[in-house]
Amino acid sequence: MKKFIWIAIAVCFIGGVIWVIQRWLFTSEMITKVYPRSKDSFVGDPMPYYNGSEFMIYYLEDLRDNQIGFHPFSLMTTTDFVNYKDYGEVIPFVNDHQDQELALGTGSIITDENGLYHAFYTGHNGSLSPKEAIMHATSQDGLEWEKHPEHTFFASSQYEADDFRDPYVFYEQESGEYWMLITARQNGTGVIAHYTSTDLETWNEQGVLFKNDFGNDSNLECPSLVFFKGKWYLAFSDQWDQRVVHYRVADHVHGPFEKPTGLDYWDSSGFYAGRLETDGEQLYVVGWIPTKEGHNDQHTYNWAGNLAVHELVKENNHLYPTIPTSVSKRVHTVPFSRQTIIEGDHLSFDPGEETTLYSGKVNLDEQTKKWAFQFNSEQDQSNLNIVFDTELNTVAFYNRPLDVAENYPPETEMPFNYSNQSDVEIKLVLEDDIVVLYLDNKVALSNRMYRAQGNQWAIISIEGNLAIEP
């Protein structure tokens, strides 16, 4: 008997050594950024998976290289959301006009009871009918994958065939089954379809888990469902209208999933396709901050950009965004100095070469109506302004000069209620051309500002004096 035990131990040890060697040999590059991307490509639709020791963040890699195929699965791993190991492409698309996998679409990753990795993803080809299918691949280490085309399946007759994508898979303990949530359309509106499986190969249709409750017909993209501190949280992105990441709350995995009172989203349209993931202690939403056409501040947002992560803090069953604790401990921090900025005056900050977290409080009184964070502020006509308005109860980014900004729609905007507050806590993260703001750890505002990079920024009092403190 002892002989068999020692053999088993030896096999496990050798298997572990092989796994470590495979990970070491697989080409990777270290990236130290809060908002990372590969140097020659961009991050779209992250698919985070916590494997017990690190976050494996798969994503659709936007190569922008004019191939006919696009969006392979690529992978970054991290333990702290600052230091990333970028492995690059791990599941390729098929560069063939006639192949279902001409483009890969969003999916998810899970391990089974034997530790085998399973990737479920969308195969998309706009010239085929149906355009979209759910596909399957497996891996021993999460790096090298074997595709299983025999497990491919399409929408049933109750769903529209060309909108059937973004599978999210998790193990549901109560039923002892694997669940798959799928972005689908039924009767002219977006729904989240529900499938189950016992073997991760054959999937059984279980009807609709959740139906669009916005009053429009938007698709509900990139769904995820996580149990956290006694509640089930369902997140999804509305494909049109606001184009933000929403969430719903339920006591049971089957629902009903209800809109939380007040705000049901965490960030503006500057943050998209966020997926929920937890390490058992903290909950995170992992999405991307888009680039702009031609990398020009005056142009429109396009698809994909840099990876972005908000930590979500539970308070009375609501979830509120803040900078991840592990990030705030590792980045350069600059507290506001205690002083008052007279109406019409400003306080300037010199740019730094490293990622910087600025933090402090703005004291509010009846005279404090409006102020702004102005970027590229040494220019005579700075047109990158985040405006805080206590009468409109908004925080909004305008790529216009302050004197005309509010004659135009904002680039990004979040509601925020300043009333009945004596102060507002502000955290501002600046990294290269990315500007992310947190107010009172209640809302986030993520933005791309090309001309903010390397340039001075300032706090400007517009209406009323502005008292700030660390």
What is the topological layout?
Layout: H1 2-25, E1 29-32, E2 42-50, E3 55-62, E4 73-78, E5 83-91, E6 103-111, E7 117-124, E8 132-139, E9 145-147, E10 164-172, E11 177-186, E12 189-197, E13 204-211, E14 220-228, E15 231-238, E16 245-250, E17 272-278, E18 283-292, E19 301-315, E20 318-322, H2 325-328, E21 332-335, E22 339-341, E23 346-349, E24 356-363, E25 370-375, E26 384-389, E27 394-398, E28 412-415, E29 423-431, E30 434-439, E31 443-448, E32 457-463, E33 466-469
Parallel strand pairs: 21-24
Antiparallel strand pairs: 1-5, 2-3, 3-4, 4-5, 6-7, 7-8, 8-9, 10-11, 11-12, 12-13, 14-15, 15-16, 17-18, 18-19, 19-20, 22-33, 23-32, 24-29, 24-33, 25-26, 25-32, 26-27, 27-28, 29-30, 30-31
Explain the overall architecture.
This protein is mostly beta strands and 470 residues long. It folds into two domains: 27-326, Tachylectin-2, Chain A (5 Propeller); 331-469, Exo-inulinase, domain 1 (Jelly Rolls, Sandwich), CATH 2.60.120.560. 6% of the residues lie in helices and 49% in strands. The protein contains two helices and 33 strands. Strands 21, 22, 24, 29, 30, 31 and 33 form a seven-stranded mixed β-sheet that branches. The chain has a six-stranded antiparallel β-sheet with strand order 23-32-25-26-27-28, with no helix packed on it. It has a five-stranded antiparallel β-sheet with strand order 1-5-4-3-2, with no helix packed on it.
